[in-house]
Design a protein that fits this description.
GO terms for molecular function: GTP binding; GTPase activity. This protein is an alpha/beta fold and 312 residues long. Helices cover 50% and strands 12% of the residues. The protein has two domains: 208 residues, 3-Layer(aba) Sandwich (Rossmann fold), CATH 3.40.50.300; 48 residues, no CATH class.
Length: 312
Amino acid sequence: MADLIRRLKEKDKRYIARVISRIENGDPEREQLLEALFPHTGQAYVLGITGSPGAGKSSLMNGLIRYLRQKGMTVAVIAIDPTSPFSGGAILGDRVRMTGHSLDEGVFIRSMGSRGSLGGLCRAAKDAVKVLDAAGYDLVLLETVGVGQAELDVMHAADSVSLVLNPTAGDVVQVFKAGIMEIADLFVINKADLPGSHRLAEEIERMLDLKPDLPWRPPIVKTIATREEGLVLLWEKLEEHRRFLEQTGERRRRRQRQAELELKELVQDLLGQKLAESLASPDWQHELSQVVSRQKSPISAAREWLRRVRFD
């Protein structure tokens, strides 16, 4: 596994892609890979970018990547695409999205299918972030498709979350969704040259005024991604939020919450696997027959069966 870390640190993009594929496809050594990676994670700044389809998230990231590469930063992207119902893979490919960076050794881009996660993040995507973190990328961009579950998921995987809005797509409705205040660390009004951008900014400001006690007031940045306008200010505001996270201890608290959520999910999965294996046992069949013959109630049978299951 020492060779694994060395190859990752060298940012061999083909090797990184193979490691992510092994994890995504449930390789038998998946757990060992993640175990080896873990001590080398926790350094990258993870930025979540979410918003409704058509808001221009990919164009925004294209411009941001170019700007950050000029500053000498290395950037990795995990772009969550809708999953093909036939192949289970991402419908949109890496080259379709961001062809301009394919030859840049300082940029890694990977599209991953949501795999039934309602446009949010499957576990493989979160594990891919760990791979890129261990590889030493300065910034990991995590783009989710759509809104709803995606917003919640990216909040549990990123240090900062940018919500990208489109002034002509009725995105003012998104601003008033329950919990949006806790999700967005920064609002980006993209395509700001279109009608409605000023009104959308006013609506967001009005919403923020309803929460005057927020320790961090999410800034509003207007951009025109196709002309790469507003990207410098966008990065300045993200850097400002990053400093806020570090100085207030909020980054540590966020990562603690993320670790707790991941640990709970893993425990639930392991318990679920153990329970599934136990369904083939004679004890299960015995309890089932007791319920069918109405000699025992379902709740009593379930409790008795759980008492006999070994979880070691």
